[in-house]
Design brief:
Strands 1, 2, 3, 4, 5, 6, 14, 15, 16, 17, 18 and 19 form a twelve-stranded mixed sheet that branches. This protein has a four-stranded mixed sheet with strand order 20-22-23-21. Strands 7-12-13 form a three-stranded antiparallel sheet, covered by helices on one side. The radius of gyration is 23 Å and the shape is globular. 34% of the residues lie in helices and 19% in strands. It has 554 residues and is an alpha/beta fold. Strand 14 and strand 15 form a beta hairpin.
Protein backbone atom coordinates (compact mmCIF):
# COMPACT_ATOMS: atom_id res chain seq x y z
CA UNK A 1 0.00 0.00 0.00
CA UNK A 2 1.40 3.40 -1.00
CA UNK A 3 2.04 6.00 1.69
CA UNK A 4 0.46 9.46 1.53
CA UNK A 5 3.69 11.02 0.30
CA UNK A 6 4.07 8.39 -2.44
CA UNK A 7 0.49 8.95 -3.59
CA UNK A 8 1.07 12.71 -3.64
CA UNK A 9 4.25 12.35 -5.72
CA UNK A 10 2.50 10.19 -8.31
CA UNK A 11 -0.30 12.74 -8.78
CA UNK A 12 -0.83 14.69 -11.97
CA UNK A 13 -0.19 18.10 -10.44
CA UNK A 14 -1.44 20.94 -12.62
CA UNK A 15 0.22 24.35 -13.10
CA UNK A 16 -1.35 26.71 -10.59
CA UNK A 17 -2.58 29.09 -13.32
CA UNK A 18 -4.88 26.33 -14.61
CA UNK A 19 -6.39 25.98 -11.11
CA UNK A 20 -6.85 29.76 -10.98
CA UNK A 21 -8.66 29.62 -14.33
CA UNK A 22 -11.26 27.29 -12.80
CA UNK A 23 -12.09 30.13 -10.42
CA UNK A 24 -12.25 32.75 -13.16
CA UNK A 25 -8.91 34.24 -12.14
CA UNK A 26 -6.29 35.47 -14.61
CA UNK A 27 -2.52 35.20 -14.32
CA UNK A 28 -2.33 38.80 -13.17
CA UNK A 29 -4.79 37.99 -10.36
CA UNK A 30 -2.36 35.66 -8.64
CA UNK A 31 1.16 35.97 -7.26
CA UNK A 32 3.22 32.90 -8.13
CA UNK A 33 5.19 30.96 -5.50
CA UNK A 34 6.79 28.50 -7.92
CA UNK A 35 4.73 26.46 -10.41
CA UNK A 36 2.17 24.96 -8.03
CA UNK A 37 1.46 27.57 -5.36
CA UNK A 38 0.16 31.12 -5.54
CA UNK A 39 -1.40 33.90 -3.52
CA UNK A 40 -4.60 35.59 -4.63
CA UNK A 41 -4.31 39.34 -5.06
CA UNK A 42 -7.00 41.26 -3.13
CA UNK A 43 -7.84 43.34 -6.21
CA UNK A 44 -8.99 40.18 -8.00
CA UNK A 45 -11.90 39.86 -5.57
CA UNK A 46 -13.08 43.48 -5.58
CA UNK A 47 -16.66 43.84 -6.75
CA UNK A 48 -17.42 40.14 -6.50
CA UNK A 49 -20.33 39.06 -4.31
CA UNK A 50 -20.45 35.96 -2.15
CA UNK A 51 -22.44 33.25 -3.92
CA UNK A 52 -21.30 30.02 -2.34
CA UNK A 53 -22.89 27.74 0.23
CA UNK A 54 -20.65 27.19 3.24
CA UNK A 55 -20.28 23.65 4.59
CA UNK A 56 -18.37 22.96 7.81
CA UNK A 57 -16.65 19.61 8.36
CA UNK A 58 -16.12 18.81 12.02
CA UNK A 59 -15.69 15.60 14.02
CA UNK A 60 -16.20 13.58 17.17
CA UNK A 61 -13.80 13.95 20.08
CA UNK A 62 -10.43 12.73 18.72
CA UNK A 63 -8.81 9.47 19.79
CA UNK A 64 -5.55 7.71 18.91
CA UNK A 65 -7.60 5.59 16.47
CA UNK A 66 -8.00 8.60 14.16
CA UNK A 67 -11.05 10.18 12.56
CA UNK A 68 -9.93 11.64 9.20
CA UNK A 69 -11.50 15.09 9.27
CA UNK A 70 -9.14 16.78 6.78
CA UNK A 71 -9.23 13.72 4.51
CA UNK A 72 -13.03 13.84 4.53
CA UNK A 73 -13.02 17.59 3.85
CA UNK A 74 -10.80 17.19 0.79
CA UNK A 75 -12.66 14.08 -0.43
CA UNK A 76 -16.03 15.80 -0.08
CA UNK A 77 -14.80 18.78 -2.11
CA UNK A 78 -13.54 16.43 -4.84
CA UNK A 79 -16.84 14.55 -4.78
CA UNK A 80 -18.81 17.78 -5.22
CA UNK A 81 -16.55 18.65 -8.15
CA UNK A 82 -17.19 15.21 -9.68
CA UNK A 83 -20.91 15.93 -9.45
CA UNK A 84 -20.41 19.07 -11.53
CA UNK A 85 -20.48 21.60 -8.72
CA UNK A 86 -18.11 24.60 -8.69
CA UNK A 87 -16.31 23.83 -5.44
CA UNK A 88 -13.53 25.34 -3.37
CA UNK A 89 -12.01 23.75 -0.27
CA UNK A 90 -10.75 26.12 2.45
CA UNK A 91 -8.29 24.67 4.99
CA UNK A 92 -5.84 25.68 7.69
CA UNK A 93 -2.08 25.67 7.17
CA UNK A 94 -0.24 22.87 8.98
CA UNK A 95 2.01 23.89 11.87
CA UNK A 96 5.55 22.57 11.99
CA UNK A 97 5.03 21.58 15.63
CA UNK A 98 2.56 18.73 15.01
CA UNK A 99 4.25 17.78 11.70
CA UNK A 100 7.46 16.97 13.59
CA UNK A 101 5.60 15.96 16.74
CA UNK A 102 2.69 13.55 16.37
CA UNK A 103 1.09 13.77 12.94
CA UNK A 104 3.96 13.78 10.46
CA UNK A 105 1.74 15.73 8.04
CA UNK A 106 -1.65 17.47 7.87
CA UNK A 107 -2.74 17.78 4.25
CA UNK A 108 -5.31 14.99 4.14
CA UNK A 109 -4.48 11.40 3.35
CA UNK A 110 -4.62 8.60 0.82
CA UNK A 111 -6.37 9.75 -2.37
CA UNK A 112 -7.93 12.79 -0.66
CA UNK A 113 -5.02 15.19 -0.25
CA UNK A 114 -4.01 18.72 -1.08
CA UNK A 115 -0.77 19.16 -3.00
CA UNK A 116 2.14 19.94 -3.19
CA UNK A 117 1.93 17.99 0.07
CA UNK A 118 5.55 18.42 1.15
CA UNK A 119 5.54 22.19 0.66
CA UNK A 120 2.22 22.65 2.43
CA UNK A 121 3.36 20.61 5.44
CA UNK A 122 6.68 22.42 5.77
CA UNK A 123 7.42 26.09 5.05
CA UNK A 124 4.67 26.60 2.42
CA UNK A 125 4.58 30.31 1.47
CA UNK A 126 6.11 31.52 4.73
CA UNK A 127 2.90 32.81 6.37
CA UNK A 128 3.53 31.19 9.74
CA UNK A 129 7.12 32.43 9.78
CA UNK A 130 5.82 35.95 9.10
CA UNK A 131 3.40 35.65 12.01
CA UNK A 132 6.25 34.58 14.30
CA UNK A 133 8.43 37.46 13.12
CA UNK A 134 5.68 40.02 13.73
CA UNK A 135 4.92 38.56 17.16
CA UNK A 136 8.57 38.62 18.21
CA UNK A 137 9.17 42.10 16.82
CA UNK A 138 6.48 43.33 19.19
CA UNK A 139 8.12 41.44 22.07
CA UNK A 140 11.50 42.98 21.23
CA UNK A 141 10.03 46.50 21.05
CA UNK A 142 8.26 45.97 24.37
CA UNK A 143 11.42 44.93 26.21
CA UNK A 144 13.45 47.61 24.48
CA UNK A 145 10.96 50.26 25.61
CA UNK A 146 11.45 49.17 29.23
CA UNK A 147 15.24 49.03 28.81
CA UNK A 148 15.32 52.54 27.27
CA UNK A 149 13.60 54.20 30.23
CA UNK A 150 10.02 52.85 30.29
CA UNK A 151 8.25 56.08 29.38
CA UNK A 152 4.88 54.29 29.45
CA UNK A 153 5.39 53.14 33.02
CA UNK A 154 4.98 49.44 32.19
CA UNK A 155 4.90 47.17 35.22
CA UNK A 156 7.46 44.41 34.44
CA UNK A 157 5.46 42.05 36.65
CA UNK A 158 2.37 42.55 34.46
CA UNK A 159 3.72 41.86 30.99
CA UNK A 160 1.30 39.51 29.22
CA UNK A 161 2.89 39.31 25.77
CA UNK A 162 4.94 36.19 24.99
CA UNK A 163 7.40 35.30 22.30
CA UNK A 164 6.55 32.42 19.98
CA UNK A 165 8.11 29.69 17.89
CA UNK A 166 6.38 27.25 15.52
CA UNK A 167 7.65 24.11 17.17
CA UNK A 168 6.51 21.90 20.04
CA UNK A 169 9.06 22.88 22.71
CA UNK A 170 7.96 22.45 26.32
CA UNK A 171 11.36 23.76 27.50
CA UNK A 172 10.25 27.26 26.47
CA UNK A 173 6.96 27.37 28.39
CA UNK A 174 8.52 29.21 31.32
CA UNK A 175 11.84 31.04 30.99
CA UNK A 176 13.80 33.86 32.59
CA UNK A 177 15.44 36.26 30.18
CA UNK A 178 17.25 39.58 30.10
CA UNK A 179 20.08 37.99 32.10
CA UNK A 180 23.75 38.81 31.61
CA UNK A 181 24.14 42.28 33.03
CA UNK A 182 23.05 45.86 32.46
CA UNK A 183 23.53 45.87 28.68
CA UNK A 184 21.63 42.62 28.10
CA UNK A 185 18.12 43.75 28.92
CA UNK A 186 15.91 43.82 31.99
CA UNK A 187 15.67 40.45 33.79
CA UNK A 188 12.14 39.07 33.99
CA UNK A 189 10.02 35.95 33.81
CA UNK A 190 8.86 35.17 30.29
CA UNK A 191 7.59 32.32 28.14
CA UNK A 192 6.79 31.15 24.62
CA UNK A 193 3.58 30.13 22.87
CA UNK A 194 3.50 28.05 19.71
CA UNK A 195 3.13 30.48 16.78
CA UNK A 196 -0.18 29.15 15.50
CA UNK A 197 -1.78 29.78 18.91
CA UNK A 198 -0.55 33.37 19.09
CA UNK A 199 -2.85 36.37 18.98
CA UNK A 200 -1.09 37.57 15.83
CA UNK A 201 -2.18 34.37 14.08
CA UNK A 202 -5.75 34.92 15.29
CA UNK A 203 -5.61 38.49 13.99
CA UNK A 204 -4.31 37.31 10.61
CA UNK A 205 -7.17 34.82 10.45
CA UNK A 206 -9.88 37.31 11.41
CA UNK A 207 -8.68 40.44 9.57
CA UNK A 208 -10.69 41.45 6.50
CA UNK A 209 -8.22 43.92 4.97
CA UNK A 210 -4.83 45.54 5.51
CA UNK A 211 -6.59 48.44 7.24
CA UNK A 212 -8.42 46.05 9.56
CA UNK A 213 -5.16 44.16 10.14
CA UNK A 214 -3.34 47.31 11.29
CA UNK A 215 -6.20 48.37 13.54
CA UNK A 216 -6.34 44.94 15.16
CA UNK A 217 -2.57 44.83 15.66
CA UNK A 218 -2.61 48.22 17.32
CA UNK A 219 -5.22 47.00 19.85
CA UNK A 220 -3.07 44.12 21.14
CA UNK A 221 -2.64 44.40 24.92
CA UNK A 222 1.00 43.62 25.75
CA UNK A 223 1.18 44.68 29.40
CA UNK A 224 -0.36 46.84 32.10
CA UNK A 225 1.16 49.97 33.60
CA UNK A 226 1.58 50.65 37.29
CA UNK A 227 -1.94 52.13 37.44
CA UNK A 228 -3.39 48.90 36.02
CA UNK A 229 -4.22 50.41 32.61
CA UNK A 230 -3.53 48.33 29.46
CA UNK A 231 -0.51 49.13 27.27
CA UNK A 232 -0.99 48.26 23.60
CA UNK A 233 1.07 47.62 20.49
CA UNK A 234 -0.26 50.96 19.29
CA UNK A 235 1.22 52.65 22.36
CA UNK A 236 4.58 51.09 21.44
CA UNK A 237 4.21 52.29 17.82
CA UNK A 238 4.73 48.70 16.65
CA UNK A 239 1.60 48.03 14.57
CA UNK A 240 2.89 49.53 11.33
CA UNK A 241 6.09 47.51 11.28
CA UNK A 242 4.17 44.36 12.23
CA UNK A 243 1.77 44.95 9.33
CA UNK A 244 4.72 45.29 6.96
CA UNK A 245 5.85 41.80 7.96
CA UNK A 246 2.32 40.47 7.38
CA UNK A 247 1.42 42.31 4.16
CA UNK A 248 1.89 39.20 1.99
CA UNK A 249 0.88 36.67 4.64
CA UNK A 250 -2.65 38.10 4.70
CA UNK A 251 -3.24 37.04 1.08
CA UNK A 252 -4.93 33.60 0.75
CA UNK A 253 -2.83 30.75 -0.67
CA UNK A 254 -4.10 28.84 -3.70
CA UNK A 255 -3.17 25.18 -4.23
CA UNK A 256 -5.11 22.10 -5.42
CA UNK A 257 -6.36 18.68 -4.44
CA UNK A 258 -5.12 15.49 -6.08
CA UNK A 259 -8.12 15.74 -8.42
CA UNK A 260 -7.56 19.38 -9.27
CA UNK A 261 -10.20 21.01 -7.06
CA UNK A 262 -9.08 24.53 -6.06
CA UNK A 263 -7.94 24.74 -2.44
CA UNK A 264 -7.38 27.88 -0.37
CA UNK A 265 -5.02 27.00 2.50
CA UNK A 266 -4.54 29.96 4.82
CA UNK A 267 -4.06 30.53 8.53
CA UNK A 268 -3.21 27.94 11.12
CA UNK A 269 -4.53 28.23 14.67
CA UNK A 270 -5.17 25.20 16.91
CA UNK A 271 -8.73 24.71 18.15
CA UNK A 272 -7.76 23.47 21.61
CA UNK A 273 -5.69 26.54 22.56
CA UNK A 274 -6.84 29.04 19.90
CA UNK A 275 -9.88 29.62 17.69
CA UNK A 276 -9.06 26.81 15.29
CA UNK A 277 -10.27 28.07 11.90
CA UNK A 278 -8.73 29.06 8.59
CA UNK A 279 -8.75 32.75 7.67
CA UNK A 280 -11.82 34.86 7.07
CA UNK A 281 -10.03 36.22 4.00
CA UNK A 282 -9.74 32.73 2.48
CA UNK A 283 -13.31 31.74 3.34
CA UNK A 284 -14.67 35.02 1.98
CA UNK A 285 -12.64 34.58 -1.22
CA UNK A 286 -13.86 31.01 -1.63
CA UNK A 287 -17.49 32.10 -1.22
CA UNK A 288 -16.99 34.61 -4.04
CA UNK A 289 -15.26 32.13 -6.33
CA UNK A 290 -17.24 28.90 -5.90
CA UNK A 291 -20.82 27.69 -5.50
CA UNK A 292 -19.89 25.27 -2.70
CA UNK A 293 -17.22 25.96 -0.09
CA UNK A 294 -16.07 23.11 2.14
CA UNK A 295 -14.10 24.13 5.21
CA UNK A 296 -13.03 22.48 8.47
CA UNK A 297 -12.36 23.50 12.04
CA UNK A 298 -9.87 21.86 14.37
CA UNK A 299 -10.39 18.88 16.69
CA UNK A 300 -13.89 17.87 17.81
CA UNK A 301 -17.06 19.91 17.36
CA UNK A 302 -16.94 21.05 21.00
CA UNK A 303 -13.79 23.02 20.13
CA UNK A 304 -13.38 23.84 16.44
CA UNK A 305 -17.04 23.97 15.46
CA UNK A 306 -18.03 25.96 18.56
CA UNK A 307 -15.38 28.57 17.81
CA UNK A 308 -16.16 28.52 14.09
CA UNK A 309 -19.78 29.38 14.88
CA UNK A 310 -19.47 31.60 17.95
CA UNK A 311 -16.32 33.51 16.97
CA UNK A 312 -15.57 33.32 13.24
CA UNK A 313 -19.12 33.29 11.85
CA UNK A 314 -20.25 35.94 14.33
CA UNK A 315 -17.36 38.30 13.51
CA UNK A 316 -17.40 37.76 9.74
CA UNK A 317 -21.18 37.60 9.28
CA UNK A 318 -21.00 34.08 7.84
CA UNK A 319 -24.05 31.82 7.74
CA UNK A 320 -23.14 28.17 7.13
CA UNK A 321 -25.59 25.98 5.21
CA UNK A 322 -24.78 22.55 6.67
CA UNK A 323 -22.31 20.59 8.76
CA UNK A 324 -20.62 17.21 8.40
CA UNK A 325 -19.61 15.32 11.56
CA UNK A 326 -16.82 12.82 10.87
CA UNK A 327 -16.55 9.59 12.87
CA UNK A 328 -15.02 6.14 12.67
CA UNK A 329 -16.28 2.94 14.23
CA UNK A 330 -12.78 2.42 15.64
CA UNK A 331 -12.75 5.78 17.45
CA UNK A 332 -16.26 5.28 18.80
CA UNK A 333 -15.25 1.89 20.23
CA UNK A 334 -12.36 3.62 22.01
CA UNK A 335 -14.87 6.04 23.52
CA UNK A 336 -16.72 2.91 24.62
CA UNK A 337 -13.73 1.63 26.55
CA UNK A 338 -11.83 -0.54 24.07
CA UNK A 339 -8.05 -0.29 23.81
CA UNK A 340 -6.38 0.50 20.50
CA UNK A 341 -4.99 -3.03 20.21
CA UNK A 342 -8.52 -4.53 20.39
CA UNK A 343 -10.21 -2.38 17.77
CA UNK A 344 -10.09 -4.95 14.94
CA UNK A 345 -12.63 -7.10 16.80
CA UNK A 346 -16.38 -6.57 16.46
CA UNK A 347 -17.75 -5.26 19.74
CA UNK A 348 -21.26 -3.87 19.49
CA UNK A 349 -21.63 -3.13 23.23
CA UNK A 350 -18.43 -1.02 23.22
CA UNK A 351 -19.59 0.76 20.07
CA UNK A 352 -22.98 1.49 21.61
CA UNK A 353 -21.31 2.88 24.74
CA UNK A 354 -19.09 5.13 22.60
CA UNK A 355 -21.84 6.37 20.30
CA UNK A 356 -22.95 8.83 22.97
CA UNK A 357 -19.95 10.97 21.97
CA UNK A 358 -21.06 11.21 18.35
CA UNK A 359 -24.69 11.79 19.28
CA UNK A 360 -23.85 14.70 21.60
CA UNK A 361 -21.81 16.41 18.87
CA UNK A 362 -24.58 15.89 16.31
CA UNK A 363 -27.23 17.13 18.73
CA UNK A 364 -25.18 20.28 19.36
CA UNK A 365 -24.97 21.03 15.63
CA UNK A 366 -28.72 20.56 15.17
CA UNK A 367 -30.18 21.81 18.44
CA UNK A 368 -27.70 24.39 19.74
CA UNK A 369 -26.67 25.92 16.40
CA UNK A 370 -29.72 25.07 14.28
CA UNK A 371 -27.91 23.57 11.31
CA UNK A 372 -28.76 20.49 9.22
CA UNK A 373 -26.10 17.82 9.61
CA UNK A 374 -24.88 14.51 8.23
CA UNK A 375 -22.52 11.98 9.80
CA UNK A 376 -19.65 10.82 7.58
CA UNK A 377 -18.40 7.40 8.67
CA UNK A 378 -14.87 6.71 7.48
CA UNK A 379 -15.02 3.00 6.86
CA UNK A 380 -12.07 0.79 7.80
CA UNK A 381 -11.61 -2.79 6.49
CA UNK A 382 -12.18 -4.16 10.01
CA UNK A 383 -15.59 -2.47 10.40
CA UNK A 384 -18.41 -5.03 10.27
CA UNK A 385 -21.81 -4.56 8.65
CA UNK A 386 -23.43 -4.91 12.07
CA UNK A 387 -21.29 -2.08 13.49
CA UNK A 388 -22.06 0.21 10.55
CA UNK A 389 -25.79 -0.59 10.86
CA UNK A 390 -25.73 0.35 14.56
CA UNK A 391 -24.17 3.76 13.81
CA UNK A 392 -26.77 4.45 11.11
CA UNK A 393 -29.63 3.35 13.41
CA UNK A 394 -28.51 5.54 16.32
CA UNK A 395 -28.04 8.63 14.12
CA UNK A 396 -31.59 8.22 12.78
CA UNK A 397 -32.90 8.74 16.32
CA UNK A 398 -31.71 12.35 15.94
CA UNK A 399 -33.14 12.66 12.44
CA UNK A 400 -29.67 12.62 10.89
CA UNK A 401 -28.37 10.35 8.15
CA UNK A 402 -25.05 8.53 8.50
CA UNK A 403 -23.23 8.01 5.20
CA UNK A 404 -20.24 5.80 4.48
CA UNK A 405 -17.15 7.54 3.14
CA UNK A 406 -14.25 5.82 1.40
CA UNK A 407 -12.40 8.90 0.18
CA UNK A 408 -9.04 7.78 1.63
CA UNK A 409 -9.02 4.79 -0.75
CA UNK A 410 -11.08 6.15 -3.65
CA UNK A 411 -10.76 9.93 -3.59
CA UNK A 412 -13.77 11.92 -4.71
CA UNK A 413 -15.54 8.83 -6.03
CA UNK A 414 -15.70 7.45 -2.49
CA UNK A 415 -17.44 10.61 -1.28
CA UNK A 416 -20.21 10.98 -3.86
CA UNK A 417 -22.95 9.59 -1.59
CA UNK A 418 -21.84 12.02 1.13
CA UNK A 419 -21.76 14.88 -1.38
CA UNK A 420 -25.31 14.17 -2.54
CA UNK A 421 -26.53 14.25 1.05
CA UNK A 422 -24.68 17.53 1.65
CA UNK A 423 -26.26 19.06 -1.45
CA UNK A 424 -29.69 17.98 -0.18
CA UNK A 425 -29.02 19.46 3.25
CA UNK A 426 -27.93 22.81 1.84
CA UNK A 427 -31.37 23.13 0.26
CA UNK A 428 -33.00 22.88 3.70
CA UNK A 429 -33.83 26.03 5.57
CA UNK A 430 -31.68 26.06 8.67
CA UNK A 431 -32.11 28.30 11.68
CA UNK A 432 -28.48 29.16 12.39
CA UNK A 433 -27.85 30.76 15.77
CA UNK A 434 -25.10 31.14 18.36
CA UNK A 435 -24.65 29.39 21.69
CA UNK A 436 -24.66 32.69 23.60
CA UNK A 437 -25.20 36.42 23.31
CA UNK A 438 -22.06 38.54 23.66
CA UNK A 439 -23.97 40.93 25.93
CA UNK A 440 -23.78 38.32 28.67
CA UNK A 441 -21.00 38.58 31.24
CA UNK A 442 -17.75 36.68 30.65
CA UNK A 443 -18.69 34.07 33.25
CA UNK A 444 -22.18 33.65 31.80
CA UNK A 445 -20.77 33.07 28.31
CA UNK A 446 -18.28 30.48 29.54
CA UNK A 447 -21.04 28.74 31.48
CA UNK A 448 -23.24 28.74 28.37
CA UNK A 449 -20.59 26.86 26.39
CA UNK A 450 -19.92 24.41 29.23
CA UNK A 451 -23.60 23.58 29.74
CA UNK A 452 -24.96 23.80 26.18
CA UNK A 453 -22.01 22.43 24.18
CA UNK A 454 -19.90 20.35 26.57
CA UNK A 455 -22.86 18.91 28.49
CA UNK A 456 -21.40 19.84 31.88
CA UNK A 457 -22.93 21.40 34.98
CA UNK A 458 -21.03 24.66 34.65
CA UNK A 459 -17.68 26.36 35.17
CA UNK A 460 -15.67 26.83 38.35
CA UNK A 461 -13.36 29.84 38.52
CA UNK A 462 -10.13 30.01 40.51
CA UNK A 463 -9.63 33.14 42.62
CA UNK A 464 -7.06 34.35 40.10
CA UNK A 465 -9.52 33.91 37.23
CA UNK A 466 -12.22 35.74 39.20
CA UNK A 467 -9.89 38.71 39.67
CA UNK A 468 -8.86 38.73 35.99
CA UNK A 469 -12.48 38.60 34.80
CA UNK A 470 -13.49 41.45 37.09
CA UNK A 471 -10.58 43.54 35.83
CA UNK A 472 -11.34 42.78 32.16
CA UNK A 473 -14.99 43.74 32.54
CA UNK A 474 -14.03 46.92 34.38
CA UNK A 475 -11.74 47.82 31.44
CA UNK A 476 -14.62 47.33 28.98
CA UNK A 477 -13.60 43.93 27.57
CA UNK A 478 -16.65 42.03 28.78
CA UNK A 479 -18.81 42.12 25.63
CA UNK A 480 -16.62 39.95 23.39
CA UNK A 481 -16.94 36.27 22.45
CA UNK A 482 -15.01 33.77 24.58
CA UNK A 483 -12.32 31.44 23.26
CA UNK A 484 -12.05 28.49 25.65
CA UNK A 485 -8.73 26.66 25.73
CA UNK A 486 -9.49 23.07 26.72
CA UNK A 487 -8.19 19.56 26.19
CA UNK A 488 -9.25 18.14 22.83
CA UNK A 489 -9.64 14.61 24.22
CA UNK A 490 -12.84 15.09 26.23
CA UNK A 491 -15.98 17.20 26.45
CA UNK A 492 -14.72 17.98 29.97
CA UNK A 493 -11.36 19.47 31.00
CA UNK A 494 -10.15 15.99 32.02
CA UNK A 495 -8.68 14.08 29.04
CA UNK A 496 -9.45 10.75 30.76
CA UNK A 497 -13.24 11.30 30.61
CA UNK A 498 -14.17 9.76 27.26
CA UNK A 499 -17.56 9.33 25.63
CA UNK A 500 -20.10 11.92 26.75
CA UNK A 501 -19.43 12.56 30.46
CA UNK A 502 -22.05 14.21 32.65
CA UNK A 503 -22.22 15.98 36.02
CA UNK A 504 -18.80 17.58 35.58
CA UNK A 505 -17.52 21.11 36.09
CA UNK A 506 -14.85 22.80 33.97
CA UNK A 507 -12.25 24.71 35.98
CA UNK A 508 -11.19 28.06 34.54
CA UNK A 509 -7.77 28.91 35.94
CA UNK A 510 -7.05 32.11 34.00
CA UNK A 511 -8.65 34.63 31.63
CA UNK A 512 -6.89 37.12 29.38
CA UNK A 513 -7.91 39.53 26.67
CA UNK A 514 -6.92 39.15 23.04
CA UNK A 515 -8.10 42.65 22.18
CA UNK A 516 -6.77 42.61 18.63
CA UNK A 517 -8.44 39.30 17.83
CA UNK A 518 -11.55 40.48 19.64
CA UNK A 519 -12.15 37.77 22.22
CA UNK A 520 -11.41 36.74 25.80
CA UNK A 521 -9.31 33.58 26.20
CA UNK A 522 -10.23 31.27 29.09
CA UNK A 523 -7.60 28.69 30.05
CA UNK A 524 -9.10 25.57 31.59
CA UNK A 525 -7.75 22.51 33.37
CA UNK A 526 -4.09 21.86 32.68
CA UNK A 527 -4.10 23.04 29.05
CA UNK A 528 -0.81 24.56 27.80
CA UNK A 529 -0.32 27.09 25.00
CA UNK A 530 3.02 25.51 24.11
CA UNK A 531 2.76 21.79 23.29
CA UNK A 532 5.58 19.31 23.87
CA UNK A 533 6.99 16.54 21.69
CA UNK A 534 5.91 12.94 22.36
CA UNK A 535 8.31 10.21 23.48
CA UNK A 536 8.92 9.21 19.86
CA UNK A 537 8.36 12.36 17.77
CA UNK A 538 7.53 12.08 14.09
CA UNK A 539 10.77 14.00 13.43
CA UNK A 540 12.68 10.77 14.16
CA UNK A 541 11.13 9.22 11.03
CA UNK A 542 11.47 12.21 8.69
CA UNK A 543 14.59 12.30 6.54
CA UNK A 544 16.12 12.99 3.13
CA UNK A 545 17.26 10.17 0.86
CA UNK A 546 20.41 10.34 -1.28
CA UNK A 547 18.50 12.04 -4.12
CA UNK A 548 17.21 14.76 -1.78
CA UNK A 549 13.65 13.40 -1.57
CA UNK A 550 11.79 13.76 1.71
CA UNK A 551 10.84 10.46 3.36
CA UNK A 552 8.74 9.70 6.43
CA UNK A 553 6.35 12.65 6.03
CA UNK A 554 3.30 10.36 6.19
Amino acid sequence: MNTDIEIAREANIRPIESIAEKLGLRKEDIEFYGRYKAKIQPAALEGKKAKGKLILVTAITPTPAGEGKTTTTVGLADALSRLGKSTVVALREPSLGPVFGVKGGAAGGGYAQIIPMEDINLHFTGDIHAVGAANNLLAAMLDNHIFQGNELGIDPERIVWKRCVDMNDRQLRYVEDGLGGQKSGVPRRDGFDITVASEVMAILCLATSLKDLKERLSRIVVAYNREGKPVTAGDLKAAGAMAVLLKDAIKPNLVQTLEGTPALVHGGPFANIAHGCNSVAATAAALKLGDYVVTEAGFGADLGAEKFFDIKCRMAGLVPSAAVVVATVRALKMHGGMTKSELAKEDLPALERGLCNLLRHVSNIKNVYGLPAVVAVNRFPTDTDAEIALVIEKCKTLGVNAVLSTVWAEGGKGGETLAKEVIRLTEERGDFRFAYDTELSIKEKINAVVTKVYGGKGALFTPGAEEEIAALEKLGFGKTPVCIAKTQYSFSDDPQKLGAPEDFFVTVRSCKISAGAGFVVALTGSIMTMPGLPKQPAAERIDLDEEGNIVGLF
